[in-house]
Write a structure and sequence with these properties.
The complex is a heterodimer of chains A (306) and B (241). Chain A has 306 residues and is an alpha/beta fold. Chain A contains 10 helices and 13 strands. Chain B is elongated and about 60 Å long.
Chain lengths: 306, 241
C-alpha cells in the first residue's frame, strides 16, 4: 500500500518559513490526525504533497513517487483542500464529471460517489445553491472519485451538520479499515479524537509530535479521579493515609491526581466513607494538545499585564 | 498522462458553463446584427470597401470572442479552482495546451460561421454595391475572419493566465480594441499597423495598402497571440498554484 513520505521538506514564502525541515511518514491502514494552530503549515504541507507548491528544499513522495509522476493521479490520491473550489455555475454532477474525464474515470463512478455522499438528489443543482455543508460533501465526493489509496482531507468537518460529522467519522474509519492512507487536518480536538489513530502535530512548520493518539494523551495529561462524598473530612484522611492528595473544588467535588479509580473506590469503601460519585476523568486530546502547543501558538493571546 | 482525457475534460468544462457557449452565441448575434446595419447604411464614402463593410460587425463582435477566451481561463482562477484542476492534471503545460485547444476550435468554427452569416446578411443590404467582390476575396474574408476571432480569443486566454484575472484582461483589452486602436487606427503606414487587432483585420478588407497583406497581417496577430500564450504558460508553470 501507499504511504505519504515527507523528507526534510522546507517551504518559504518570501522569507517566512511555512514548513521547516519537516520529515514525517503517513502510513496506510490508520487515520492520521493532522493538528496544529492556524498558520502551522498543515495546508501548505498538503499542497506540497500534491505538487501544487514547490518545496524550497526536500521532497514529498507517494509510494516513492512524486505526485506529478503519477499517471491518472486521482486514481491514487484523493484530496479535499477547499470546499469552495467548485465553480458555482456548474452542477455538482458536471463538476465531478469534469474531474472524472481528465483521469478516465467512468461517469458511473460519479453517480456512485454522489450517492455515497448523500448528494444524489441534488446532483443536478448548481453548486452556487449549496450550503457549506453540501459543498464539503461535494469536496469529499471529489476526493473519493478515483477510489484512491491515499486520502487527504483539509478540515473536512467544516460546516457539516451533526449528522454529517457522524457520517464523516464513519467514512474515515472505513477508509482506514480498507487499508488506505488517511490524513485529516482539523482544528477540532474532540472531533479529531473521535476518528484518529495516530497524530502528527505541527507548530510553526516544525514537527512537534508523531505518535499514536493514546500515547500522545497519556504522556501529557495526568490521570485524575473525581469523587463526591457527604463526609469530606473522612475522605481526605483516608486518602492521606494511602499517600493521595485530594483537592476540593467549589461545587463540592474532589479530585485526586495520579490515581486510578479502582484504588480510590477501595480506599473509600474500606474507610466506610459514603461515596455519592466516583469517576475517572478521561484525559482529553484537547488538554494534551494545549500542553504541547502552548508555547508554539503563533496567534495565541498575550497574557494580560496586571 | 495522456492528452486526450485532458482534452475531453476541458471540453466538458466549456460546455457545462452556461456563460461560455453564451459568449459564442453573443459573438454570432452581435457580429451579424452590426454587419446587417452596415449593409443598409449609406455607402458613398470614397474609401468604401464592400468586403470590410460586410464584415464590419466583427469590430464590436470580437469583444464577445475576447470575453470567451478570457472567461474560459479565468474560471480557473477563482479561489481553490486551479488547485483542484492541477491536482487532477499535474502536467501544467499539457493542461494549458488542452485549455487553449478547446478555446481555439469552437472560436474558429463559430467565427467562420459568423463571418459567413454576416457576409450574406450584409450583401442582401448592399445589393449591387458588392457585386465587385470575387469569390476568392469572399472566401478569404470568411476564413480569415474566423482565424482572426480565434486568435483574439487565444490572445485574451493567454493574457488571463498571465494576469490571473478575467476582469483585468477585459479591462485591458476592451478599451484597447475600442479606443486606442480606433483613435490611432487611421494612421496607416506606422507601427499602428502592427497592433494585434489592426494587423489581423487587414484580412477583412478587399483592398489594402502598407507593408502588411491579409495573411502576413494575420501572422503578426498570431505572433502576438503566441507571445501572450507563452507568457501565460510561463506564469502558470513557475508559480505555486
Amino acid at each position: 500500500m501507499t504511504s505519504i513520505d515527507i523528507q526534510d521538506v522546507t517551504k518559504e514564502f518570501g522569507g517566512r518559513r511555512a514548513v521547516d525541515h519537516l520529515t514525517v511518514r503517513v502510513l496506510p491502514g490508520r487515520v492520521t490526525g493532522f493538528l496544529g494552530p492556524n498558520g502551522a503549515g498543515k495546508s501548505t504541507t498538503m499542497r506540497l504533497v500534491l505538487g501544487l507548491d514547490r518545496p524550497t528544499a526536500g521532497r514529498a513522495t507517494l509510494g516513492g513517487r512524486p505526485y506529478a509522476a503519477l499517471r491518472e493521479p486521482l486514481r491514487h490520491v484523493g484530496a479535499l483542500l477547499d470546499a469552495q473550489a467548485a465553480h458555482g455555475s456548474r452542477t455538482a454532477r458536471d463538476h465531478l464529471r469534469v474531474l472524472a474525464a481528465s483521469n478516465r474515470i467512468p461517469d458511473r463512478r460519479v453517480d456512485e460517489v454522489l450517492e455515497e455522499t448523500g448528494l444524489a438528489s441534488v446532483a443536478r443543482r448548481r453548486v452556487r445553491t449549496y450550503s457549506l455543508g453540501m459543498r464539503q460533501r461535494l469536496g469529499i465526493a471529489a476526493a473519493l472519485l478515483g477510489d484512491p489509496e491515499v486520502v487527504m482531507l483539509d478540515e473536512p468537518s467544516n460546516g457539516l451538520d451533526p449528522e454529517g460529522i457522524v457520517w464523516i467519522r464513519q467514512v474515515l474509519r472505513r477508509l482506514a479499515a480498507e487499508g488506505r492512507t488517511v490524513l485529516v487536518s482539523s482544528h477540532l480536538m474532540n472531533e479529531t479524537a473521535s476518528f484518529a489513530d495516530h497524530l502528527v502535530v505541527l507548530g510553526r512548520g516544525r514537527l512537534l509530535a508523531d505518535t499514536p493518539m493514546r500515547d500522545f494523551i497519556h504522556a501529557r495529561v495526568r490521570p485524575l479521579v473525581r469523587v463526591r462524598t457527604t463526609d469530606p473530612v473522612a475522605l481526605k484522611s483516608a486518602l492521606a493515609r494511602h499517600g493521595h492528595d485530594a483537592v476540593e473544588h467549589e461545587d463540592g467535588h474532589w479530585t485526586v491526581h495520579h490515581a486510578r479509580v479502582d484504588d480510590i473506590g477501595r480506599i473509600a469503601s474500606a474507610a466506610g466513607v459514603p461515596v455519592l460519585e466516583l469517576a475517572a476523568e478521561e484525559a482529553t486530546l484537547e488538554q494534551a494538545y494545549f500542553d504541547l502547543t502552548g508555547a508554539e501558538t503563533e496567534f495565541a493571546a498575550q497574557p494580560q499585564e496586571v | 498522462m495522456e492528452y486526450t482525457p485532458v482534452l475531453r475534460s476541458e471540453w466538458l468544462k466549456i460546455r457545462t458553463l452556461r456563460s461560455l457557449p453564451g459568449a459564442l452565441l453573443a459573438l454570432f448575434a452581435a457580429t451579424t446584427a452590426f454587419s446587417a446595419i452596415a449593409g443598409v447604411s449609406e455607402t458613398s464614402a470614397p474609401d468604401f470597401d464592400p468586403l470590410f463593410t460586410a464584415l464590419s460587425g466583427v469590430i464590436p463582435g470580437q469583444i464577445a470572442a475576447v470575453a470567451f477566451g478570457a472567461m474560459a481561463v479565468s474560471s480557473e482562477f477563482h479561489p481553490g479552482a486551479l488547485r483542484l484542476t492541477l491536482a487532477a492534471v499535474p502536467r501544467r503545460g499539457r493542461w494549458f495546451a488542452a485549455k487553449a485547444a478547446v478555446i481555439a476550435v469552437p472560436a474558429l468554427a463559430v467565427g467562420m460561421l459568423t463571418a459567413l452569416a454576416a457576409l450574406l446578411v450584409a450583401r442582401a443590404g448592399l445589393g449591387t454595391e458588392a457585386d465587385g467582390l470575387s469569390a476568392g476575396e469572399q472566401v478569404r474574408g470568411v476564413v480569415g475572419c474566423g482565424v482572426y476571432l480565434m486568435l483574439m480569443a487565444l490572445f485574451a486566454a493567454g493574457l488571463a493566465a498571465l494576469l490571473r484575472s478575467g476582469v483585468a484582461t477585459l479591462s485591458l483589452m476592451v478599451p484597447f480594441i475600442l479606443v486606442v486602436s480606433f483613435v490611432i487606427g487611421d494612421a496607416t503606414g506606422t507601427v499602428a499597423d502592427f497592433l494585434p487587432d489592426k494587423a489581423g483585420q487587414l484580412v477583412l478588407h478587399e483592398t489594402y495598402e502598407g507593408t502588411l497583406g491579409p495573411w502576413s497581417g494575420l501572422a503578426v496577430t498570431a505572433l502576438w497571440t503566441a507571445a501572450a500564450l507563452l507568457l501565460g504558460a510561463w506564469r502558470l508553470r513557475r508559480r505555486d498554484a
